[in-house]
Amino acid sequence: MKLLVINGPNLNMLGIREKQIYGTQTYEDLKAYILEQAALLGMEAEIFQSNHEGDLVDRIQAAYGTADGIVINPAAYTHTSVAILDALKAVSLPAVEVHLSDVTKREPFRQISYAGMACEAHFIGLGFEGYREAMAYLAAKRKDHN
Ligand code: DQA
Predict the structure, then answer these.
(1) Angle between the 53-62 and 82-91 helix axes, to the nearest 10 degrees?
(2) Is 22 annotated as catalytic?
(3) Which domain holds residue 39?
(4) 74 CA distance to ligand 1 middle (Å)
(5) What is the pLDDT of residues 24-62, one digit of tens each?
(6) Three-point CA angle 57, 15, 2, nearest 5°
(7) DSSP E strands, 100-143
(8) Cβ–Cβ < 8 Å for 3, 68
């Protein structure tokens, strides 16, 4: 099973940005964690990060016909991007939303998730573990359907 793991803007600054919210582990640590957990789940994960909305849309579109599922943390674009929502709907792949922090307990402007409307599961506020749970969800779903 081939997964695309997408991370949005400023997640490349993990370990530097707002450590009281996002912790001290770096983006390199996150990538290593995702690849390790994907391997343990018997999946192949490709990780893509961009600070640019259109690049995220392009990468989602490129997943059509090449990936079996998408794990996405759209970061700040979660709360603003109808384009990312539409791209997820366009490719119609099983998609799961992840947020490191518990956005439900943060500012009012973080309470809407456009991308989340195209996702069938949501792992929020679990730190790195949320990515593992998202991948495990897609692996289990695939198993059920085979
Ligand atoms: C985030 C939450 C977003 O509100 C924020 O803009 C981010 C990271 C998270 O993983 O907790 O950049 O997606």
Answers:
(1) 0
(2) yes
(3) 2-145
(4) 7
(5) 999 999 999 999 999 999 999 999 999 999 999 999 999
(6) 40
(7) 121-124
(8) yes
Residue 102: both structure tokens together: 């518990």
Active-site residue 77, yes or no?
no
Site residues for ligand 1, CB cut-off 6 Å? 10, 73, 75-76, 78, 99-101, 103, 110
For the chain, the domain total comes to 1
How many whole angstroms separate alpha carbon 35 and alpha carbon 129?
13
Locus of tokens 């809407």: 112
CATH number assigned to the domain comprising residue 105: 3.40.50.9100
The pTM of this model reads 0.97
**Residue 5 structure tokens:** 């793991």
Contacts of 130 (CB under 8 A, 6+ apart): 98, 99, 100, 123, 124
